[in-house]
Write a structure and sequence with these properties.
The chain has 6 helices and 5 strands, in the order αβαββαβααβα. With 240 residues, it is an alpha+beta fold. The two termini are 24 Å apart.
């Protein structure tokens, strides 16, 4: 193989960016939790189609509120920070797998990963039913998407490959997060000048004050650097 080949070098660079970005998002999702173990058994994969790409963040925010309120039904009004779920999401649309020049956000949707507190693992099936029932009525959610359901919610399956990046260099869970945020990476690393900008988001991390983020920074840094070697994070720790 020609290691000086520009296409090869771009692929390696893109994989490195994907690994760092995925690990960083995982760290932001976990940093407020006391129990960070077995996150692959505590994760729900979500795809929601929306009417317009501008609806994505509003719908995702409502999704988080629905999950948080459902999981906290037996707690007082104040929810301890370590008991709050985490949601990461990113807008997506047709054509982001291979960006070629100007793009149009056709069939807009977003992918998301929801991590529930470990104490709520047994409630994942009922949580999924709750989200499927209520998210469809949120303003901005598409009612019909070319014969397919506008809302897809399933437990994360560690045995499935997303085929988004180089699995040999990434833990399956990091690759899963990479799939969720692929539009952000593709649009930001494309040599073309894209007319659409999308960014990934994480709740509740994005809501924290700067002082709170500073307090959590050491934890974020440790997880970001070591997520692929911290076996305690995953029940199924293996490369596929």
């Amino acid at each position: 193989m020609n290691y000086n080949n520009e296409k090869y070098q771009n692929k390696i660079s893109k994989t490195n960016i994907a690994i760092h970005n995925s690990n960083w998002i995982i760290a932001k999702m976990l940093c407020h939790m006391k129990d960070m173990t077995e996150i692959d058994t505590r994760t729900i994969f979500i795809t929601v189609h929306v009417k317009n790409i501008t609806n994505v963040n509003f719908v995702a925010g409502c999704l988080y509120q629905l999950a948080e309120s459902y999981l906290a039904y037996n707690l007082d009004e104040y929810i301890p920070l370590h008991r709050r779920p985490a949601l990461a999401w990113c807008a997506d649309f047709e054509g982001t797998t291979k960006v070629r020049g100007a793009v149009s956000p056709n069939r807009p949707h977003f992918h998301a990963a929801l991590i529930v507190p470990k104490s709520s693992i047994a409630r994942i099936p009922s949580l999924i039913r709750h989200l499927e029932k209520h998210i469809r009525s949120v303003y901005g959610v598409a009612s019909f998407v070319g014969g397919s359901t506008p809302v897809y919610i399933r437990p994360y399956d560690h045995s499935k490959k997303s085929n988004s990046f180089n699995q040999s260099a990434m833990h399956p869970y990091a690759d899963f997060i990479g799939y969720i945020t692929k539009a952000e990476l593709e649009l930001s690393t494309s040599n073309q000048n894209s007319n659409v900008i999308v960014n990934s988001h994480v709740l509740p991390y994005d809501e924290f004050y700067e002082g709170e983020k500073s307090d959590l920074e050491p934890t974020v840094n440790i997880i970001t650097k070591n997520v692929s070697t911290l076996q305690r994070l995953f029940k199924h720790f293996r490369y596929v």
